[in-house]
Amino acid sequence: MSATAAEGFGRRAAALLRSAANDLKRDDENAERDLGLEPGTFADHTSGKRPVDWALLRRAAEVWPLNERDLLPVHDDCPAGLSVLRAAESLAGSRVLARGGEGYYEYRDTAMSRIASYRPEWIRMLRVVEDNSADNPRVQWNRGHLLYQFTYFVGPVNYYYRWGDTSYCVPMETGDSVWGLPFAPHSFTARTDSEPAYILALTYGGGLVGDAQRELAVLGRRPAHDLALPVAGSPSSLPGLIRSFMAARCVTPAEIADRTGLAADRLTELCSPGATATETELALLAEALGVSVRDLLAPRSTSHHGVSIQHGRDARSWDYPGKDDPAYRFTQLAGDPLHPHTTALQVDVRATTASDDARLVTHQHQYLYVLGDAPVEVAWEHDGQRRTDVLEPGDSAYIEPLVPVTFSATGDALPRLLLLRIAGAVTPEVRHALGSMAQGGIDRYIAEDRLWYSKEGN
Ligand code: FE
Q1: Residue 229 C-alpha to ligand 1 middle, in angstroms?
Q2: Which fold has domain 3-76+428-446?
Q3: What helix, strand, coil percent values describe the chain, rounded to 5?
Q4: What is the rounded average pLDDT of the residues 400-428?
Q5: What is the whole-number distance in angstroms between the Cα of residue 230 and the centre of ligand 1?
Q6: For the chain, does the N or the C end have fewer beta carbons within 10 angstroms?
Q7: What is the pTM of this model?
Q8: Tens-place pLDDT, residues 3-27
Q9: Measured distance CA(342)–CA(333) in Å, rounded
Q10: How far is the CA of 149 from the centre of ligand 1 (A)?
């Protein structure tokens, strides 16, 4: 960790300590007594003058009802807003993993950041098969894994996936892509060794890694199963949500019938499998339960047997920002409405100079990999500074949310990029919460710097 990075980490730890003490309604004297600190020193810890060290964390987690993790900030490994991993660094970390005693895949890490849940790997298929059978015994299956997986295919790669007891094989070509759900077994092989056959396996945790996983691990197996809600299209998606809110509010069907003016019979129906509601009924239920209509709407998924496959040959492409002298041609890659904040794009860069119209800004985290043979110039703005870099084929990058970025060609050869954008922990719920805070709230939320009241009084 550089001195600046360590300083930032220390500052964020100090702010978390103050924030946690405020939550627990401890002023400095109370905090000092609880934590066994010298009188007058708590303010030094919350201002960054003294470090929040392991001993302090351990003591806080012992005497206060919180976790060490609650007081630990994350590392900022992307101080410039964009960080690059060169192809050579990627290659240096190459490792071959064997299945059944024989090398099966060559893995290379590509750009990752501690700020986002990406675990993007470049993976080469070492196993060559002679057929497209899902039951080929030379195919080595994994056991599935936690992370969602977006995969972009390069070359003659066979993709295998299993859902329930059925296995499938889909022969893929360059430009094809797939999005897959957690824990479904899958595999990849090459159809020939006479040309490159590899994938960009961009796995990410979405909302599944982090606090939710830790909370459910404590609650246990049974609650975790009971908390699972079906997506739209299931007979129990609407009744599941309605019943969940009714239990939360401790209300009976008779009480909701009274509040909504709906007939008791109709309410029983709405709470039973197969129920669908009219817009008017949804509005009445939302009002009666004190929620928003969107809280009663399950998200939909277009995945089939756990995957959403998008072949390049029938993928939608469009020019950006317009048809005249476009800066880019985008091609829509695999995705799923279950993840509205994931966007996968193939980017064909068209211009050697990028105008302001070509600036791309998103609330999502971004991952970028240079496909093809042409280098790309990347320009971005961060902390009021404009920066540029040239990325060569095989280089990859991570870009923080809201960092404006443009891509342009460095010569006649037109670059092709793979862009995967994902949501972080700042979900729409959090963004709406930010948008509804009292004045000055957002600044204190990200770096609490004071006791929640004034000792001197107002
Ligand atoms: Fe995988």
Answers
A1: 24
A2: 434 Repressor (Amino-terminal Domain) (1.10.260)
A3: 30, 25, 45
A4: 97
A5: 24
A6: C
A7: 0.95
A8: 888 899 999 999 999 999 999 999 9
A9: 11
A10: 6
